[in-house]
Write a structure and sequence with these properties.
This protein is α/β, with parallel strands linked by helices. It contains seven helices and 14 strands. Among the domains are: 121 residues; 87 residues. It has a six-stranded mixed β-sheet. It has a four-stranded mixed β-sheet with strand order 1-7-8-5, with helices on both faces.
Length: 351
């Protein structure tokens, strides 16, 4: 009996040791995981802070392409913020067009001025060398012109519409097509294995020449849906810089959101120049300088009102974009405009 009792006690001791050991093991595993999590958060926060400085610098250097080396991390972009791991950073008022995911060890940045005709803001474009852009051209379309506009560092290709059947899959994690006619977006037989959200397209419409990019136009946004393209929305661009933004933006929603931020800046800057012109018109009343300011005031008021409307209702119409371009032209982007007349009469310039 004593021997049996002793054996039971030995078994119980071993069970207790195993349970205690398992609890201790789980405890230390949790500590390690927590430490790893805290370390990842600290690393993500550091990268996010450094990236914020890099993006600020990239926006200042317009017409310059930068290739930025990054750690092996995924960077997610939205209209109002971007993420590195769990760490979000606000984009604030910065106008940034980017895909929703950058996942390589490099990032390409490019910035252009957006003028109406006075400087409004810089547009910053971001992409990944592994993200592929396919420009599908036709004889009467400006595919070559657009191809040349994009930096050499961008992973871009120009394919004639008649040769699109020879398209070769290169295992990129995202592919974006740029068409110039809705009828050119044919069946997707080469990228069937890719997720629908990773294959997108835009159709840049309203081209009447193969050598000129119109200052305004219509853009259709598409996403792969099995073997066909699905239209996700129609929007409009104002000047070449915003058209290029549609190429780099992830989708219709993101493009519209970022453009609303751009129009908000346009509204604020237009108000400043409007107040300046009103003051100058009063100061130069009765002289040759007054008429140019009167012309500028009318067009600045129209730009102020139109841009304010865009911050809530964009996208509206290509007609609205065309009218805004006309207002800008009357202020100062062609001969005979208000700014040139002010200069001709040796008056203070509109901008």
């Amino acid at each position: 009996m004593l021997k049996k009792k002793a054996m039971i006690e030995v078994h119980f001791n071993w069970i207790f040791i195993l349970i205690a050991g398992a609890v201790i093991f789980v405890f230390f595993i949790n500590i390690v995981n927590k430490q790893r999590e805290f370390s990842d958060i600290r690393t993500s926060g550091t990268i996010a802070t450094n990236l914020e400085s890099i993006l600020t610098g990239a926006q200042i250097s317009t017409d310059t392409v930068n290739i930025i080396d990054l750690p092996k991390v995924n960077i997610g972009f939205e209209c109002e913020r971007y993420f590195i791991g769990p760490t979000p950073k606000q984009t604030k008022s910065n106008v940034i067009f980017a895909p929703n995911l950058l996942k390589g060890t490099q990032m390409i940045s490019w910035a252009l001025d957006w003028n109406m005709p006075y400087r409004i803001t810089n547009f910053l474009y971001l992409t990944d060398p592994e993200l592929r852009y396919i420009i599908v051209n036709k004889a009467d379309r400006p595919g070559q012109l657009l191809f040349d506009e994009l930096p050499e560092e961008v992973n871009k290709e120009l394919i004639e519409l008649g040769n699109i059947g020879n398209f070769i899959d290169k295992n990129n994690f995202k592919v974006k097509f740029i068409f110039f006619d809705s009828n050119d977006a044919g069946p997707l037989t080469k990228l069937t294995y890719m997720k629908d959200e990773d294959v997108t397209a835009i159709v840049i419409k309203d081209f009447t020449s193969s050598t000129i990019i119109p200052p305004t136009g219509t853009i259709e946004f598409y996403q792969k849906n099995g073997l066909v393209w699905q239209l996700t929305g129609t929007s409009y661009y104002l000047k070449k810089e915003s058209m290029i933004g549609a190429i780099f933006a992830e989708d219709w929603d993101t493009f519209n959101c970022v453009m609303k931020k751009a129009f908000k800046k346009l509204n604020l800057v237009s108000k400043v120049y409007l107040e300046r012109s009103e003051t100058l018109e009063t100061a130069y009343a009765g002289t040759n300088c007054a008429p140019p300011y009167s012309t500028a005031i009318i067009n600045l008021e129209n730009l102020r009102d139109s841009s304010e409307k865009q911050t809530g209702e964009f996208p509206t119409s290509s007609i609205t974009m065309g009218a805004m371009q006309d207002y800008a032209t009357n202020i100062g982007s062609s001969s005979g405009n208000a700014n040139n007349l002010a200069q001709l009469y040796s008056c203070a310039l509109i901008y």
